[in-house]
Write a structure and sequence with these properties.
384 residues, single chain, globular, 3% strand, 3 domains, mainly alpha, 3-stranded antiparallel sheet
Length: 384
Amino acid sequence: MGEGAAQQGGTFAANLSREGEKAGYDYLVRWIRNPRQRSAPYCAFEKKDLTPEDYRRHGLPFLFDLEHATCPNDGHPLQVQQMTPMPSLRLSEDEARDIAAYLLTRRHDGAVYPNAAFMDDPALKNRGLALVRNYGCAACHEIAGLEEEQRNGTELTREGSKPLERFDFALLGHQAEKEGWYTHKGFFDRKLENPAVYDTGKEKAGPDRLKMPNFNLSKPEIDAVTTFLTGSVDATVPPRYFYNPTDARQDIVDGWWVVRKYNCMGCHKVRAGQNSVLDGMAKYQDPDWRDQRPPTLIGEGARVNPAWLMRFLNNSGAQPGRHESQQRAPVSKDEDAQLQLLRWRDSPARALLRGPLLAGPAVHRRRAGTPHRCRAHPGAPVVH
């Protein structure tokens, strides 16, 4: 978030370069301190946010967190955290306030906005809610009260196998045949370039218009997405050729999904030859700061005890012996992804990863006759 391009971060998360123009101080402090904090717990069974009164009726305090995630009314699981990949950095309140104060300075001088007094009109709330539901905003954004809304987009898993006559070229069908783009590729190309193109020539009411947003894709991006959709077809390969493990190897697949979801590669090196976002920042080119980068995770499975790593992922701030800047962000316990990590407590999973990796180093250390403990991970066992 520095001044020069070399200080800019990655593209995984929101752009904060003008955050001071849209967010308030109190909101920023709360978000930075605990990005997953909800103002109220959500009960999927009752389809509503709970209130202090729901707890008071049962003689319970209005307390909801990972340890208090059961609905007092019916005993069903509660959603007690925001589903954001932003980690908790374990900042103190003063540190969160300092960062919020800095972000409020990120604005363009002289920015002028039109009067927004209309936002105080309560009659617009219901109309806005209807539009949010119509356009399926809750499919991408978390919106309190709309947690159970369904997506309104077309299923694309086998879009390349859909018969051409089932594509809605609308009033452009004859033009497409005449100009030679009455094909899967022709439909995808024009839809991605202008998602409302097939409304051309039609008189539709607002709710009936095509709802896909315009992502302003470049021509190479349109070509890439079109290629993907064209290739999304019913498989002609026999099922026996697909990799669908049912043992601990599936945990490796699911674990890699978790790593990508939380963008671990943004800070850590996970694969050989991969550079993290921090590697390209000028600050970390300075020899005095180079050692302050987050540690590499290449070969991590050969260096640590799985039980210690599990405890560390659950609560990295509680582990002694590590510098605070090297501790990693905790993973939310209430997400399905966490269940994949918990499986590493099973001995088959430990043996699968650690067995082959530990064999070589352990043999060399036995020959040398000296014990070894990983300095970077104090919870790791001594190997002789």
